[in-house]
Amino acid sequence: MERLRKNKTLFLYYYLIMIPVAVGIWILASHYHLMEENLALMLTAYLLLFSLIFLITNRYSFQIFLFLLTLLTGVYGFEHYAYKDYPLINALYSTFRLFMIDVDNVFTKSGDKFVAYPLSIEIARWSAALYLISTIFQIAYSFFNESIKLFFYKLLGNHYVVVGYHQQSKILLQNLRDQGERVILLTEGLASSEKEYLDELGVMVLVGTKTDHDLYETAGLHRARYGILFHEDDPSNLDELISIRDYFREKRRSGEPLNILLHLTDQQSTILYEEIEKEMSKAEETVVRIVNTHRLIADNLLNAYPLYLHYEEWVKDPSGDALHLLFVGFDETNQQVALKAMERAHFYNKNKLSITVLDKEIEKVKKLWFRTYPKSHHVADFHFRAFDIHAQALEWLFKDGQPFTHVFLSTGDDYLNMMEGIRLSKQLNHLPIFINVKEEGLLSYQVYQKTQELANLYCFGYYHEVLNKEVFINEKQDKLAKLIHERYQEQKRRESPAAANLPSWEQLTDFKRESNRSQFNHALTKLMLLGLDAVPKDEAEKVQGKVLSKEEYLLEISDQLEKLAEVEHRRWNAFHYLRGWDVYPTPTPDKTRDEERKLHGCLVSWEELDRVMELVGENYKKYDRDTIIQLYDMWKTIDYEIVKRESVPTQTE
């Protein structure tokens, strides 16, 4: 389908060029008499009809064009301009001799080579010469294309190396190429149809065994901008990471570290990675970031539709009810949505997030969840209930007066998700309902159209929305997370000369880098609580509200600084609890945490933090306050303005 779309595009461009050319031919024939009308008619018909080739293929179209043009004008010229009758078979033979750069002079009795040939023969012989030259270049290009491209990739560097090929990595490859990136794919095997598709896409394919150092060398991995480990299973990606670590130790790479995106879907695999990371952190050849497609989908969803949307006044009430999320089906995607919701749902409202999970195999789901996230009960109140969506209706939950604020359907069946979502949307039109739909279709397109009847229904889960440079690579987020870390370091150095040797961003573990990213993910929530918003600089004048200076921003936050600092502390606590950390019971000035056992002295309430500060002799609350103060500069760094909104939508609006 993609190839047909591109061919149709070429078809249109061809007509845009050839229609003026055809007009020019008729002007030359009728007005200037430089061409006879029969030849003009033949050329015009040929130029206009040749475009049909693009509906079939665009490969070798230039050679096909020249070959057919030579055949057409050559046979016509030899047959019509020979000084004697020249049989068709002879005209055809003489035309083929043009491809050997030789012209049979049958136009004069003497056969002299120094003669002016008819226009059709001139067109034919030059078309034949161009055909021959282009074919030679095409053959040479076919033989040496990959070698030439590899040479330049290794020379220039800054390319992407993707390891592993399947449906998801295919989407990522396509999106990277659409965005003009140079990409090399390393894979163990590939069907010929897939190889042809990737060739047309412009992806260089290197086939070999997994963890092959020679393959890394051929791909110029040591000069790549990113290495993306994207096998279908976690063990293969971890094996590849270990192999790349060994390769770089042999290579002794100098300069900037290689950024590696390690795709892991299982939290247990992340624990295994942390053991590998302990050795990798000693050398600075690579900077590894764990990515998870399901997690990216969850982040993308909550960026587009924050949990506080239409509940602003609710979440600002310190004593109000907590948000209550209903998950119907608890597959990998819904689990990541729940996880990201727990990281983000921290407001003035101090009540823990409430989560109800419905699933057919509820006991298995419950055991797996608490085995993976054993400390998550510190962040949210969970309710697990057995439920078979094929045999039971969801309406009874709402008739019981359950105060759900959001519904997420992810049963593993796109059609079922869509049907149940549409049915609930019509009955509960005040409630945001999110349905996980992996494949785009006419039905999901209808939902996107947002008819009044389905205004509260949202689709999420499309792979193409996250498997791209903006979301999967997300350099903007890393830039801000790095800035957050650097400002924290500056503050520590000002307060203590002993902090001069703090680790750089590249030296941080993935856990600590992710902690900085998580802080940025909550930044818009903090602005919402202040009645503020962040908008791109070039759009600031179009929004309804006042653009704030730094002084005006500091004035706006002064009354709420302490409350927001407490919100930030609860968010920080949640991030650690969800990754298995717990309270370090006896913090001292020399030891405030135990990273091996995942214990931290500050994992206490805002009120109890005063006791910890007294024991340790460090003002931890100041870090939380500074996080709020520095929000202004953080947004300015990426060309955003802080705007005071004129009105805030409420749940009833």
From TrEMBL:
The chain crosses the membrane at residues 12-33, 39-57, 64-83. The keyword Acetylation does not apply. The keyword Membrane applies. It comes from Laceyella putida. Keywords: Membrane, Transmembrane, Transmembrane helix. InterPro entries: NAD(P)-bd_dom_sf. Gene3D superfamilies: 6.20.350.10, NAD(P)-binding Rossmann-like Domain. This is RCK N-terminal domain-containing protein.
